[in-house]
Amino acid sequence: MSLEADMRLLAKVPLFATLDDGQLRLLAFGAEQRRLAAGAELYKQGGYSDGGYVIAEGRAQLVDGEKVIGTYGTGTLLGELALITATDHSTSAVFPDGGMVLKIPRPLFRRMLEEYPALAGTLSAVISRKMGSFIQQLDAISKRLDRNS
Length: 149
Hints:
Mean pLDDT: 89
Number of helices: 4
Distance between the termini: 53 Å
Order of helices and strands: HHEEEEEEEEEEHH
CATH topology: Jelly Rolls
Helix content: 40-55%
CATH architecture: Sandwich
Shape: globular
Radius of gyration: 16 Å
Strand order of the largest sheet: 1-10-4-7
Strand content: 25-35%
């Protein structure tokens, strides 16, 4: 993909949607393209994560053990927490039909936060929304379990 195509892709990711062209260019320039063959594993559950991945082509299945827990397509950011802190992958990511990702290494993202502090506010809002959604899902599961008790 070209730098401009990478910039367009990154602009569709909610975390990066507020970045201007210069910021997107810096992010796209520092991102690492990785092509995956059909059936390839992007990362393994429990493995160390040193950055996030934006799906550029194809679809990724997130797998917990042997169970597929979600399928995600172009423009999805996988592993956003690893952009800001050292963490292990909670799932494996497999590309059943192959694809391509842009890897955003943690040092690149930290540089973006240092140079563009407003991005930290956007990141905080995205994480808050995800945590809220997660809490709602846990609440729904809790209610179902209470009904079945």
